[in-house]
């Protein structure tokens, strides 16, 4: 006998969503601390809303406008402003937050093997061309690798961050 599968109706899915934007839950934070493209920040902001996470971004002059344009929900979003990325990551780790990076590494965890976050977790995303700076790699508790079978060596930062956030949120 095969197990029965119940598919929720569109109305049931809508009813299960939050009525308004969340205040800081602080459980998951996406941290693209060395961004290159503003469009990636907007995409990550939308993913953060979808999984109930917050976005931690550096105080670059162009970031507020990128977030404003990317916030297609037109509701306030949970954004943490970071002045000193390395210092901020160190303080997060000292406070007991798990700090996971998305990067290629010899000791990385495959995305499929990544368990859902059990406590406050920061997902560090590197620069689109150079990855996570070497001095920040020492601050990571774990490194997540997204396997690829194509010819490219990496995914867009927003796509990679979205995949990892969904996995850590326990939604896939």
TrEMBL record:
Give UniProt keywords alphabetically: Methyltransferase, Transferase
UniProt GO MF annotations:
RNA binding; RNA methyltransferase activity
Domain spans labelled tRNA/rRNA methyltransferase SpoU type: 39-166
Domain of life, per UniProt, equals Bacteria
GO terms in the biological process aspect are: methylation; RNA processing
Q: Which InterPro entries match?
A: Alpha/beta_knot_MTases (IPR029028), rRNA_Methyltransferase (IPR051259), SpoU_MeTrfase (IPR001537), tRNA_m1G_MTases_N (IPR029026)
What is the name of this protein?
Answer: RNA methyltransferase
Q: Can you name the source organism?
A: Amycolatopsis albispora
């Amino acid at each position: 006998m095969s197990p029965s599968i119940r598919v929720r109706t569109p109305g049931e899915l809508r009813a299960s969503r939050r009525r308004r934007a969340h205040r800081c839950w602080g459980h998951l934070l996406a941290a693209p601390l060395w961004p290159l493209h503003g469009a990636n920040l907007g995409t990550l902001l939308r993913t953060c809303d979808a999984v109930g996470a917050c976005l931690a971004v550096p105080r670059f002059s162009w970031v507020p406008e990128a977030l404003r344009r990317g916030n297609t929900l037109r509701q306030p979003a949970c954004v943490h402003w970071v002045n000193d990325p390395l210092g901020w990551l160190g303080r997060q780790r000292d406070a007991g937050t798990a700090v996971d990076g998305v990067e290629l590494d010899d000791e990385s965890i495959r995305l499929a093997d990544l368990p859902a976050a059990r406590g406050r977790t920061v997902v560090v995303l590197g620069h689109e061309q150079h990855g996570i700076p070497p001095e920040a790699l020492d601050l990571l508790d774990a490194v997540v690798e997204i396997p690829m079978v194509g010819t490219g060596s990496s995914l867009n930062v927003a796509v990679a961050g979205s995949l990892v956030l969904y996995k850590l949120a326990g939604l896939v």
